[in-house]
Amino acid sequence: MPLRVEKNKCTGCGACITECPYDAIRIEGGKAEIGEYCQLCQTCVSSCAEGAIEEYSEDHNRDLDGLSAYNGIWIFAEQRAGRVAPVSFELLGEGGKLARKRGVALSAVLFGATRAEALELIRWGADRVYFSGGDIFKNFEDEPNARLLASLIEEHRPEVVLAGATAIGRSFLPRVAARLRTGLTADCTGLEIEPETGNLIQTRPAYGGNIMASILSPNTRPQMATVRPKVMKRGLYDEGRQGEIIEVKAEGLKSRAKVIGSVRDDEGEAKANLQEADVIVSGGRGLKCKEGFRMLAELAGLVGGAVGASRAAVDEGWIPYCHQVGQTGKTVAPKLYIACGISGAVQHLVGMQSADIIVAINKNAEAPIFNVATYGLVGDLNEVVPLLIRKLKERKNGG
Amino acid sequence: MKIVVCIKQVPDTAEVKINYETGTLVREGVPSIINPYDMHAIEAALCLRETLGAKVMAVTMGPPQAEAVLREAVSLGVDEGLLVTGREFAGGDTLATACALSGVIRTIGADLIICGKQAIDGDTGQVGPAVAEFLDIPHVSYVRKIVEAAPGSIKVERLMDEGVDVVQAELPALITVVRELNCPRLPSLKGKIAAKKAEIKKLSASEIGLTPEVVGFNGSPTQVKKIFTPQPRGGRKMLEGSLEEQVEALIHELAEKKCL
Ligand SMILES: Cc1cc2nc3c(=O)[nH]c(=O)nc-3n(C[C@H](O)[C@H](O)[C@H](O)COP(=O)(O)OP(=O)(O)OC[C@H]3O[C@@H](n4cnc5c(N)ncnc54)[C@H](O)[C@@H]3O)c2cc1C
Ligand SMILES: Nc1ncnc2c1ncn2[C@@H]1O[C@H](COP(=O)(O)O)[C@@H](O)[C@H]1O
Fold first, then answer.
1. CB of A40 within 8 Å of any CB in chain B?
2. Is residue A212 predicted with pLDDT exceeding 50?
3. Residues A116, A148: one domain?
């Protein structure tokens, strides 16, 4: 919302001027004045000890009554090669909570796959599934997915639409939101209903995870969000659960960007699948060489996990980029994350700090990784990791 | 052929510190840079120019200071920089930003639009696909390789959560690119001189055929309600004793927590 300075509270101290990233504030007549460079980032609001900078709302003349025509919580159930992706069940768990709070139905949308998969969505908590088995959905292409989802939304008017913050969800949902001219919040880690208004409070990390922001779309419906995988809890699976499957026709959909093949990755890109892994063993510059990752792969094998890496290790060429965890790599949230020889730079931390348990192995006791660690081991990883491997093997063999 | 690269000026998040008392970002003295992914977008455009003989334009929407990133783009070899700026654009979310960028692209025309995968300040990655929707053209996200580009179509490799797809798109199209695509060049001396002299054209909403209601704060359905610093993780336990004891303690703890 636009910002203004309450002149009688402002002391002209200039704190806001130093904080303003856009150089948009001046002192005029002893009081702060927000000028035309203002980007409404609100940094000044919290910088003001006097609380003199506040938001004010302009009358936008929006039809708030029209919002009540929107009803129900929807989740987009993404499928890959005909199977519903696990994040969809998490969305049903979270969507179910929101639906109960709002006293409305929970629906899933499934394009491609089979009726049997649609039924699974009901067992995981959907009251209704809008299902389209069209061939056009066999491979993921943005336009048909965006077009059909948007037209279903226009027809049925849900108040909330959630999808996974996956490669698929993050790619085509912005098209849906743009088509409907509605709000979309990326990569949420928390969702809540504001009781007075029914607005969805969408919380997400920004600035590389340095800050969290809570976002609202108060004047438009539906409220759309992509939700980070592995953060929300699945609901209960009930084999006897009943629901309705509504077949939707996929007609007249065009796709001007077609999938014409796939690349089998010699480096095992597909196998990296870090985002779904329950355990990740990750290595950084402390590994010193490519061979270090062989050791980590062995450890990962023993604990049933995937191998991750810091950017430094990727930049050294020790392991392909698809393994990189962090701000410019993958965001992961496994049950267990073992960081070996990783210092814990903030760009790395934002990609892994929502792991349930973090084990840090580093020879420098001052390394920042220990600040986020659940268990810290100070020592040389070339001793610790082989020891860990040996003990785990003994444990396995010993039953 | 005309290629438009969308670039954003962002604070270098590596340098951003947090004031834990006020819960705000300390941005004083934090340098502004071209969003790192957009550097790869620029590089891709310049490489295509070499093979296809295209004209490469960089556009950015932002405050007047954002002109700096356009000059930097020119120093790298981009033919022309366009700055979409004005009070009406302030406070725009991804929808309003995409609306503004689609407005300028419609005005200047483009066969191929290249965006970064995401901006490192907001980390949303929503602007690119939304621009494509506003322009009613196809898009491909997470492009890691441009296999083939010809006047009417482009073939690319797209990085998905599981594996890599080969995608063929009709032009005009928009692609968003990842780091693996290429290694951005450094500015040349000649480029630096060109950048100093370059005229950066400034455009307002009306000049790109948009009304102030659809851009900036007015055109933004999402609003930031509050900003706070994440809760620090608690419960750290430094393991003690010899390495052997530490490792044993770790296995014990992990087994207890059912992680093994
Ligand atoms: C825009 C931007 C985006 C970025 N994105 C990412 C990202 O996505 N992911 C990412 O990881 N980084 C990212 N970075 C880089 C990040 O800032 C750090 O440079 C990087 O994470 C450091 O990797 P590292 O911890 O492996 O290396 P270092 O910082 O060099 O740390 C190595 C650690 O290993 C320890 N060590 C050394 N030898 C041993 C040994 N024998 N036994 C035990 N410990 C040992 C050292 O004590 C040290 O703590 C980004 C940076 C920028 C500017
Ligand atoms: N204000 C802007 N001006 C120009 N391009 C932008 C702007 N914001 C975003 N982009 C482009 O959209 C991409 C994704 O940004 P975002 O959706 O903000 O994460 C960036 O990498 C840029 O290519």
1. yes
2. yes
3. yes
